[in-house]
Each structure stands twice: as C-alpha cells, then as structure tokens.
Fold this sequence. Notes:
Blueprint: H1 11-14, E1 21-22, E2 25-26, H2 29-34, E3 43-47, E4 50-53, H3 57-82, E5 105-107, H4 171-186
Antiparallel strand pairs: 1-2, 3-4, 4-5
Amino acid sequence: MDQWPRDLPDPAMMNAPMPIIAPGRGLSLPALARAGATLAGRTVAVDGERVSFDDSAVANVAAGDAFAARARAMADGVISRQGLDAPPAEPDEHDLPVELDPPAALDLRAEEVGGVVWCTGFTGDFSWLEAALVGPGGLPRHSEGVAPAPGLWYLGLRWMRRRGSSILYGFPGDAAWVAGEVGTHLGG
C-alpha cells in the first residue's frame, strides 16, 4: 500500500507521546486513582469548606472504559477492513480496573486538598460559575484561558488560544501555557 488510508490517523501521530500524560503515568481516571487522586462524583452542594458529591464516580469510570473499548474496536475494524499489517495492541496498565470508594463529601481544609480538577463533560456545564465569569452563550469569560478571577484557569475550550484548543491533539500546547501561568501565579 503506497498511501496511508484517509480514515486512519497519521502514523507519526500514532507514535507520538500521549498528549495527556505525566511522566510515567497516563491520566485516565483509573490511572489517576491508582496514583492517589481521590475521584468523586458530580458536585451537588458546597457549604463553606465542605463539598458534597453524588454517586456518579463509578459510573463515569465505567463510561470512560466503555468508550475506550469502542475506540479500540473501531481502530481494529479499520485496520481489518483496510487489510493493514498492524501489530496487535500492546497491553496498557492504564486500562486495568481499579477499586473505587468515592467520598460522599469532603472537607477541603481538613483533607488538605491542594488541587481540584473539575471535569464538566464534553459540552461543558458552566452554570456553577458566578454571573460575572460567564459571557455570551453561557460560556466562561477568559483571555487565553485566564479567567477574570484570581486562581481560575480553563483548558479545552473551543478557540481558547487556537483552533485545536478543544481537541485531544490540540490542547497540550494550551495546557503547557496555562501551567506556566499557574506557576507564575504561585510564584514558582
């Protein structure tokens, strides 16, 4: 076959390092849990330093695992239909199941929480933001991911800094830039 099939990603991208990766660790939900992150469900209430969650964490992990399995099956299907000579997928430790015990609530000060990753889903739900932080169409107001509130940044928004800001292979550059901004904000 002289030409790479149009319905497969560029092979150079397939061999590139994962865009969502910390040194030696993938950032799937199970990998984060194994690394010591506390996975919680959707925030349902905040009272001072105490945050309460629903029981969706286990279902969210299962949905992510199911999506990954469908994506692998789709890739395998394309490889098969195109008659490509491709090696079988290598086992990935990030795909191993993890036992979860998500909290119903956390006292952020008592637990000494140092960081929060708030995942709102593919379309985003920004209804929790104060009105001053929301612009037209209910989207967050920001300048290149920096919110008009100290200590608040965004990633993955459409056209945040460039056309690819909201896609898997596009946002790592934005993530590096935002990390630099956070580091500057924290004095490091």
